[in-house]
Amino acid sequence: MANMQTSERFSAKEIRQYTFRAGLSRTQGGLMELISEVYTSLLGALTLLTMAGALIVALRHSLGVGDESVLLASAVAPGFHSVTLLQASATVLLTLAAALLSVEMNMGPVAMTLPQTAWWLGLPVRRRGFIQPGFLKSLLWPTGAAIAVAVPLALGMAFSPTPGSIALAALCGIGLAWLLFGLAAWCQITGSGKWLKKVTGTITVLAPLTLVATALYNNVAGAGAITGANTAWLEYLPTSWPLLVADGAMWPLLLVALALGLLALVYLNLERITTSALKSSAAAGAYAAGSLLSMDATELSRSLGAAPSTGSSRIRLKLIFKNGTLLSRSVKTLISTHATMALRSPAMLLRVVVLAVIPASLASVEFLGNAVLIAVAVFLCAYIAATTMGATARFSAGNPAVDALMPLPAKTVRLVHYVVPATVMTVWAPVCFGLLLALGVGSPALLVLSLLAGPGLGAATLRAGFRPAPDWNMPAVASPTGPIPTGAIRSFLIGPDLTLIVLLPVLICLISGGVPAIAFPIQLSLTLLTYKWGTHVRKPKSAKNPGLFGTPAVSAK
Length: 557
Known about the structure:
- By secondary structure, this protein is mainly alpha-helical.
- The chain has 25 helices and no strands.
- Helix 16 runs parallel beside helix 20.
- The model is unreliable at 1-8, 306-311 and 542-557 (pLDDT under 50).
């Protein structure tokens, strides 16, 4: 009897294959259904970019900037002391390595999905057959990331690059990525390494800031500026060893042997991973996937970063107001609540500050001060910062009953939700462009123009926060990463569209190299338009469509 209870009727491999085939049998759609959802948005974006390109060319000619292509022209002022490529490359490699290790330790290198942990881990078969495929597949994305990063940097930094040296540099980068993967996997097996999460998170935030600090210091230090000789030691950091290999050094390739040994040790101990560790990693992966699908920058950062710390905040703003009318007291209470939630999230505010510095970090690097690159960085950072400030709006969108409790009209509540994000983004925009101006990019007129665009970025926050949710009642579209609900891609694009519209005059003037007088009324008009658009309260479907032929809908009894 005991032998019958412990015998394996099916192996883990057969169970995995059966589950995979069963999933394919439920396919409801294909890739073309996803493309059809975003056809209009993509066509509109391409039309907008084409018109913007024509305006940039015309504006550069009218301002007499020159006939040089904007793809080649530098936006940095002549005589500016940029950061050396070695320091920039070493900083980028260190930041990416720390971010990779932080993500792997939080989501688990050896990962399964939540349904797999529920269906498979309780079966009376050896769990190695379930864990091993995920472990091997998880090695693919660090390998691809290492190649994508190491090859361009090696091509740009090597004195005399050859196909062999670039291939060896890529191999060294792969070894570094595998070593970080193995370190995170060993921490998952042993349940250790909490302090390492804090260290990697700190490096990820602080390392990019050193580029701007160095550039600002060099332009006021004169003879005491930091030179390439002062930063030569950065090439000997373990994360920079692929650069040494690109220049002909062979000893850093020992990383590959060390990584393979660590991976072999992890492979032999896969079954030591506890069920709770696998479920925790699966939950973190599902959290990250949901945050990415909803384009929630704050939640995505939380899901990819370290676990939130516990504790109590001492920030206490006044929430009860006795003076004034009921309307004014309710508005003051809601604004105070918004401000309290923002001040109690220092990580969120720090993320917004870092995003304001990233475009200046790009501009401070030698040969990277191109106006188009800086404009793309400004747009991406502005959108992520705007969505970061939308945590309260997303909570209200998911819990409409909370807003309904306030003795305020729906339009007034929406306007109150707008106050804090608009204030923060109105400060964020001039800070971002002020740092660029300190590095010789732009002009004071462009700084004023960015200030006018700030309130519009606050409206983009509300549009992203109150975007319509994907329709899970319709048949899902099958994809390699799992089912995607109908309307998910269209919902994914709501938010970036308004950010691009409100920043369009600023970005055009940044790339063109001048700010004509007509740009200011255009910017004010677009800011007002985005304000009206972002604070608009959509009526529910039941109010828009009462029933067939205008007759009231009959509820099912």
